[in-house]
Automatic annotation (TrEMBL):
Residues 271-360 form the IspG C-terminal domain. It comes from the Bacteria. PANTHER family: 4-HYDROXY-3-METHYLBUT-2-EN-1-YL DIPHOSPHATE SYNTHASE, 4-HYDROXY-3-METHYLBUT-2-EN-1-YL DIPHOSPHATE SYNTHASE (FERREDOXIN), CHLOROPLASTIC. It comes from Pseudooceanicola antarcticus. Its cofactor is [4Fe-4S] cluster. Belongs to the IspG family. It is an enzyme of class 1 (oxidoreductase). The keyword Iron-sulfur applies. Binds 1 [4Fe-4S] cluster. The gene is ispG. Residues 18-257 form the IspG TIM-barrel domain. This is 4-hydroxy-3-methylbut-2-en-1-yl diphosphate synthase (flavodoxin). Its EC number is 1.17.7.3. SUPFAM superfamilies: Dihydropteroate synthetase-like (SSF51717), Nitrite and sulphite reductase 4Fe-4S domain-like (SSF56014). GO terms for biological process: isopentenyl diphosphate biosynthetic process, methylerythritol 4-phosphate pathway; terpenoid biosynthetic process.
Length: 376
């Protein structure tokens, strides 16, 4: 997918992992890196939860996780899983019964740590429920909730402790002949998470779910996630990811996609290339880009658009984009189509015009009439 014979410096060799299924979404084994998020509604508010899932799915979420803290939530999962447009992962902590109920309710995956749910009999029951209902499992190790014996052994949360915890959980599943699992070793500290993931990647061929947990608000969390996950993805590690932000789940999905887009690992929607603007700008670049980002949210076709303030960089950037606009003099600029200068357009009409051109181009790409300029 990211192998580019023309620009080899863009290649990323992805770690080979086993493939599992989360509902109808493949994870691992070279499948596209899926983007996940998690609802923050009360799960028993089925309508509110489904609304949020649908908004996240429209923004591009491939998989959505929902907390199942009690029996009433497990009951609500039935309708949620049935009506959701994407597979649902049930988030379970400690209560093995919730795991069984969620599997019965139609969850596509259980996020549960088998070592933390009690005795052998309980573990066997949850694994049987997962097998019976075609449910995969995500082992979710978190630096903040490591087992007591590991904290005593290592003194504090650290990558070795996290990986040991993960491998212990893996062993339990394997001992029960269960192999449909993926694993995460999350920490809010980017260094710890990155080291743990690298170590984990060497020790198992299970698909890896990436995350920098409790990363913070929209801005801080985005940057931390881009540094942590960006580095790991660049090394080829990661089969699915969730960006954790104290923000709307839709923002998590957008950030997840932007990280993948930035590395050329996945493409979705319009990739806008724009200059920071300066005294040379022929129109208000910042306001225009802000408006276009909103007006083009409905475009899912991978394609590119350059919005550049003046001729210093405009024609050069436009060469590699599907649609381009470069500011000029006297209240108008040049529209570029497929890298070539096409026609002039007044600044005051250019937003509607660019939206139209992008829509036309997206349709042509979808119909196979043209290829997106920067699809690779
Ligand atoms: S492209 Fe032109 S307007 Fe934009 S930052 Fe560069 S010089 Fe300034």
């Amino acid at each position: 997918m990211s192998h580019n014979p023309v620009r080899p410096w863009r290649n990323i060799d992805r770690r080979e992992s086993r493939r599992i299924m989360v509902g109808d979404v493949p994870v691992g084994g070279g499948a596209p890196i899926s983007v996940q998020t998690m609802t923050n509604t009360v799960t028993t508010d089925v309508k509110g939860t489904l609304d949020q899932i649908i908004r996240a799915a429209e923004a591009g979420a491939d998989i959505v996780r929902v907390s199942v803290p009690d029996e009433a939530s497990a009951k609500a999962m039935k309708e949620i899983c049935r009506e959701s447009p994407v597979p649902i992962v049930a988030d379970i902590h400690f209560h093995y019964k919730r795991g069984i109920e969620a599997a019965e309710a139609g969850a596509a995956c259980l996020r549960i740590n088998p070592g933390n749910i009690g005795d052998e009999k309980r573990v066997a029951e949850v694994i049987k429920a997962a097998k019976d209902h075609n449910c995969s499992i995500r082992i979710g190790v978190n630096a903040g909730s490591l087992e007591k014996h590991l904290l005593e052994k290592y003194g504090e949360p650290c990558p070795d402790a996290m990986v040991e915890s993960g491998m212990d959980h893996i062993k339990i599943l394997q001992d029960h002949d269960f192999h449909e699992f993926k694993i995460s070793v999350k920490a809010s500290d980017v260094f710890m998470a990155a080291a743990a993931y690298q170590m984990l990647a060497e020790q198992t061929d299970a698909p890896i779910h990436l995350g920098i947990t409790e990363a913070g608000g929209l801005m801080t969390g985005t940057i931390k996630s881009a540094i942590g996950m960006g580095n790991l993805l660049w090394m080829g590690i990661g089969d699915t990811l969730r960006v954790s932000l104290s923000a709307d789940p839709v923002e998590e999905v957008k950030v997840g996609y932007e990280i993948l887009k930035g590395l050329g690992l996945r493409h979705r929607g319009v990739n806008i290339i724009s200059c920071p603007s300066c005294a040379r700008q022929g129109f208000d670049v910042i306001k225009t880009v802000e408006t276009l980002e909103k007006r083009l949210e409905h475009i899912k076709t991978p394609m590119s658009l350059s919005i550049i303030g003046c001729v210093v960089n405009g024609p050069g950037e436009a060469l590699m984009t599907d649609v381009g606009f470069t500011g000029g003099g006297a209240g108008s600029g040049m529209v570029y189509l497929a890298g070539k200068a096409s026609h002039k357009m007044n600044n005051d009409q250019m937003i509607d015009h660019i939206v139209e051109e992008v829509e036309k181009r997206a349709e042509a790409i979808e119909n196979g009439q043209v290829t997106a300029q920067a699809a690779e």
